[in-house]
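Fold this sequence, please.
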Amino acid sequence: METGSGSRRGLHGESFDQDAEKLDSRLSSALRTTHVILPAYNEEQSLPPLLSRLSSFSESNRLQMIVWIVDDGSTDGTGDVAARGSEGLSVKLVTHPRNLGLGQALHSGLREMLRVAATDDVAVVMDADDTHDVNLIMLMLERIDQGADLVVGSRFVEGGDDSTAPPFRRLLSRGAAKLFRTVLPVAGIRDFTSGYRAYRTDLLRRATSHWGERIIEERGFACMVELLLKLRWCNPTISEVPLALRYDRKQGASKLKILRTIVQYVRLAFRDRLSPPPYRQL
């Protein structure tokens, strides 16, 4: 039986075309490798449950997954947890002898991943403190299959939620979003500071071929905005999916320094605003 719009309906109200599209997405996801990059500093307690969730998720969705943990000079047992890995999950450890900051940890993870990643692979960057829902990866991969080059887990779209985060952190995220939407708007982006994103590896390679080691220069939390601003010169198709932050699962104190991060955001916004564009199209 067909509906008036000409699309066939499935048992649960979805069209067969939509079902076929989801099946194609799952087949594509199973054939490529999903690289999960986890910059980590003193996350000995948070990593085991996160790795367990990733292992169960990749197995249930039949994903080829490699997890890259960047131990950024941790003083606890983060490196030992990463070295032990998790059953059924391929885990690679990248180590910084001393703490260099989130920006350099992300840079190292992306660099090591790009050494082995295929053109059609996808890189997912997550926080290592277990505040990001691993199940959102599947929706991100579906958006990639629908044509997105970059997918952002957004707290500021319908269905997004950061109510479990501390008030000052929520205020900082909203203030930064307002700043960058005003000074350096990027089409398709409302949540500029989210640390949960999926990238086509081809997009990262194109940007890296131009920027080289300068692809990420910020050391702190502003690195996520910096990478986004540099990737925009590649004219990527960007999509946002709702992120419900699980800050209630966070163990240990936040590494975010409020005042320092505000200074970094403001400096980055006006530095990028005044900088000339790349000398060639990326």
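The longest strand covers residues 64-72. The chain has one domain: 16-274.
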